[in-house]
Write a structure and sequence with these properties.
mainly beta; five-stranded mixed sheet
Length: 73
């Protein structure tokens, strides 16, 4: 990601991603071009409420799990 600020590595669903420092969960979702439907986010095994995604800043080496739920039968 090209940005004037520093960069850091985080792990998203088991893959290392290089992102800008101080990225929020909401910014990460936009950076990854993920369409938000029924979704849950966990950072270091802790669920983060959707209301907090735009203010929750990620740190170096955080482990992020993005879980999308799909209907079916």
């Amino acid at each position: 990601m090209q940005d004037k600020g520093k960069e850091m590595n985080i792990v998203v669903n088991g893959e290392i991603k290089e992102v800008k420092e101080d990225i929020t969960i909401q910014e990460l979702i936009e950076f990854l071009s993920i369409k938000v439907g029924v979704m849950a986010v966990a950072v270091n095994m802790n669920i983060v409420k959707k209301d907090d995604w735009d203010s929750f800043k990620l740190n170096q080496d955080d482990k992020v799990e993005l879980l999308q739920f799909v209907g079916g039968g």
